[in-house]
């Protein structure tokens, strides 16, 4: 459905530009956008390679496992239906650690694997379980220590202080994660009282 929406927006925009006489501006925007996309992608690659390499070193050194163990008591309380040694728990912890370091691109496959394992725990049902809803809320709000994607964009565009975003990002993502958990719990207990 999203593909259809994008195609329709593109077609409507081009048809409107043809009737409005602004095809030159549309062509210029297409080529300028393509050039900027390549510039941003190259900036992302350098920063992501650095952080992914650092994550690999941290993983080999056992730091990620220690961080995972540090967060495990909190995560097991957030997901009481998931057994602590189930693969879903490992994928969820890995996803959260990747998000913590601002590696959303690395976190996405881990989040998909976690959802697949949560679906297995849910008996293969198409209806989302409590754990699936909670994980989605936490994953969407994602507490972030180092916003690597934003830092990469700021570096690409020549920011004099690309890491100035770290403090505000930490505060904002902490509050969004806390809000997501509180809202998730509110609706869960409300549904439980009604049912």
UniProtKB/TrEMBL annotation:
The keyword Ligase does not apply. The chain crosses the membrane at residues 6-23, 35-54, 133-157, 169-188. InterPro entries: Gate_dom (IPR011642). It comes from the Bacteria. Pfam families: Gate (PF07670). Residues 42-154 form the Nucleoside transporter/FeoB GTPase Gate domain. The keyword Transcription regulation does not apply. Keywords: Membrane, Transmembrane, Transmembrane helix. This is Spore maturation protein. It comes from Metabacillus halosaccharovorans.
């Amino acid at each position: 459905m999203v593909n259809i929406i994008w195609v329709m927006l593109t077609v409507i925009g081009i048809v409107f530009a043809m009737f409005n006489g602004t095809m030159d501006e549309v062509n210029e925007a297409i080529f300028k956008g393509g050039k900027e996309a390549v510039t941003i992608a190259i900036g992302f690659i350098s920063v992501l390679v650095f952080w992914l390499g650092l994550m690999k070193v941290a993983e080999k050194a056992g730091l990620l496992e220690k961080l995972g163990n540090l967060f495990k008591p909190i995560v097991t309380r957030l997901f009481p239906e998931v057994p602590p040694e189930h693969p879903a728990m490992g994928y969820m912890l890995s996803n959260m650690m990747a998000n913590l370091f601002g590696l959303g691109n690395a976190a996405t496959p881990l989040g998909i694997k976690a959802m697949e394992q949560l679906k297995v725990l849910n008996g293969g049902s198409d209806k989302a379980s409590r754990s699936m809803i909670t994980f989605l809320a936490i994953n969407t709000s994602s507490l972030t220590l180092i916003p690597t994607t934003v830092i990469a964009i700021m570096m690409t565009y020549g920011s004099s202080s690309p890491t100035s975003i770290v403090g505000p990002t930490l505060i904002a993502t902490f509050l969004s994660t806390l809000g997501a958990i509180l809202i998730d719990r509110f609706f869960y207990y409300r549904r439980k009282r009604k049912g």
